Amino acid sequence: MFENSNDIQLLSVPRDPRRYLVLIRAGSKRRPSFFSEIPQEERQYDLAINYYATPHPDDILRNRAEIVFVGGRSKMHGAKRFFEATGLHNIYEGVLFLDDDIEILFNPDAFFAICDEYSLDLAQPALTADCIDAMGLTREHPGLKLRTTNWVEVMAPFFRRAFLKEMLHSFDLSISGWGLDLYWGHHLADRWTAGIVDEFLMRHTQVSNHETGAFYSYLRSIGIDPYEEMKSILTMIDTNPYIAKPIRFVYRTYSFRA
User: Fold this and answer.
1) Which helix or strand (DSSP H or E) is residue 186 part of?
2) d(Cα 185, Cα 187) in Å, to the nearest integer?
3) Which of 34-48, 83-97, 100-114 has the lowest mean pLDDT?
4) Diameter of the chain by CA atoms?
5) What is the pTM of this model?
6) Residue 95 backbone class (left: φ over 0; alpha: ψ -120 to 50; beta: rest)
7) Could you say which DSSP state residue 35 is in?
8) pLDDT recorded at residue 206
9) Which of 58, 162, 195, 225 is deepest in the core (most CB within 10 A)?
10) What is the C-alpha separation between 179 and 193, in angstroms, rounded?
11) Is 56 helix (H, G, I), strand (E, B) or coil?
12) Distance between CA atoms of 81 and 73, rounded to whole angstroms?
């Protein structure tokens, strides 16, 4: 049951959903976030866990997450199957999609609040300076509160409800995830706003290994070439190369009193 598959199986869903959702795709290993402790009950978000392997015996979310489901071929593929089956993308005000090697260093409710304050339809927390394989665009810039951009990485994207509904069809265009963020960025156009939020940080705890890493070995086993998937999406949006860039800067402010 706990394995990658084209379909999903729902194990639990909430009767009374909160405002937001944090959705994690997870395997059998310990996670740096939401593993041994459950957040306070007054939180405004539900936790969803999508297993692709048997849960670790100490994984508290197996029995305590509001949503538990198994299957899907990858994070965004499984998420699409889940929302198509439940319709909950029409209910939650926003969803944060996390890989299981992401350590979040903030209260998600505060992150959701700033996304709401600045009307960010697509967003991500900034990455800490010690993340080895992070792009410069996604690293923390200490003097900034946030930057609007034309691109947010597939590693941990937040979607506001309207943009999620608009982009849900795309979630299985790339099983590897490569190129999905380019597709989303292309479709922002002048209608939607994306941003990287420097006020809230996350850490990528594992270095991606495209040759021997478990995820990339899995992709090869099912005949998926990430480069070809990204190339296909660039062809689809008729843009090559796609230039990811910041657009507007919101600076931190400081008060001095005497």
Assistant:
1) helix 180-186
2) 5
3) 34-48
4) 66
5) 0.96
6) beta
7) S
8) 87
9) 195
10) 19
11) coil
12) 10
